[in-house]
Recover the amino acids of this structure.
């Protein structure tokens, strides 16, 4: 008869641990612990399922001091090409990052220095010295010839340095006072009282190069409402020297090439070889200033007369011009030989 009574639970065995092999269930097949889902199965090392390997210490074979480890077989390298920049004693390959098995090789001595091309030979300056000497000699000879020509020539001869004749139709040898060549009393037409002591200068010509000059300045005053009107005459005479052009050329440029309001100029005939006049008029609220200039050149002399009139009203230009030209003729007459 079958026992229908259900099996009763047995009380737990506290002596068994979670990691130990469970007890036999009474079956004919014993538990081996090979099932991975069962913890604590029968295994070769402890109860964890891993076999324990016995410990065998490694044998350490120290190398003697200074003996390197076996070197790997070196791969043949192509011969290195010489580089333009010398290396300081290092002839091996450039050391790369990491170990390549090759040890850097060092050689004794100093690195080879780069070769430099020799300096080209410098040209001789002898030719330049010869040319400079010849040029200097030519200059010295020219100066000497000019000095001899100037020193040995007379008043009427020309020289290398100057071709102007210093001898001509006019001379100042008999003039002791330049103001004697003009008549200062003509100034009384525009002012009543003569100022005393007119100024004058006489410079004799040089015996070798000529030249010489004369000048005179005189004036009258005391005219007008406030006795401030006046008149003035200026004379300038220049004799030709061996050097330079006649002073007449410079005067004409200064007097006639300036144009503007109140200015006029022109040529004069019948006085010397060349002559001109120039007028400059300046009008103010209470008076007028009139400058009238006439100049000439003839033979070896240049002469200029200038009249300056200060008046309450504008004086007659024709009257002033006639006086200026007459005085210029008088100057040439007094200087003619």
């Amino acid at each position: 008869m079958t026992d229908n009574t259900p099996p009763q639970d047995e009380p737990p065995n506290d002596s068994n641990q979670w990691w130990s092999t469970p007890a036999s269930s009474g079956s004919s097949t014993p538990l081996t612990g090979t099932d991975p889902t069962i913890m604590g199965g029968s295994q070769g090392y402890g109860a964890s399922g891993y076999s324990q390997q016995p410990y065998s210490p490694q044998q350490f074979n120290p190398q003697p001091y200074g003996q390197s480890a076996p070197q790997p077989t070196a791969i043949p390298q192509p011969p290195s090409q010489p580089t333009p920049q010398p290396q300081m004693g290092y002839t091996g390959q450039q050391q790369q990052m990491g170990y390549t098995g090759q040890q850097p090789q060092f050689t004794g001595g100093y690195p080879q220095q780069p070769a430099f091309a020799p300096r080209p030979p410098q040209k001789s300056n002898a030719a330049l010295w010869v040319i400079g000497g010849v040029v200097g000699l030519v200059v010295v000879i020219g100066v000497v010839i000019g000095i001899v020509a100037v020193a040995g020539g007379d008043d009427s001869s020309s020289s290398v340095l100057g071709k102007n004749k210093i001898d001509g139709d006019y001379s100042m040898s008999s003039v002791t006072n330049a103001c004697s060549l003009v008549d200062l009393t003509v100034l009384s037409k525009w002012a009543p009282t003569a100022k005393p002591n007119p100024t004058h200068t006489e410079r004799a010509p040089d015996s070798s190069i000529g030249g010489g000059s004369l000048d005179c300045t005189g004036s009258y005053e005391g005219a007008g409402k406030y006795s401030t009107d006046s008149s003035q005459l200026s004379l300038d005479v220049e004799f030709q020297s061996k050097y330079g052009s006649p002073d007449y050329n410079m005067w004409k440029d200064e007097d006639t090439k300036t144009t503007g309001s109140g200015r006029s100029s022109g040529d004069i005939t019948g006085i010397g070889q060349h002559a001109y006049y120039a007028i400059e008029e300046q009008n103010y609220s209470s008076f007028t200033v009139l400058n009238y200039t006439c100049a000439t050149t003839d033979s070896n002399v240049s002469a200029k007369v200038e009249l300056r009139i200060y008046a309450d009203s504008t004086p007659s230009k024709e009257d002033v011009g006639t006086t200026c030209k007459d005085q210029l003729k008088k100057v040439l007459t007094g200087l003619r030989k």
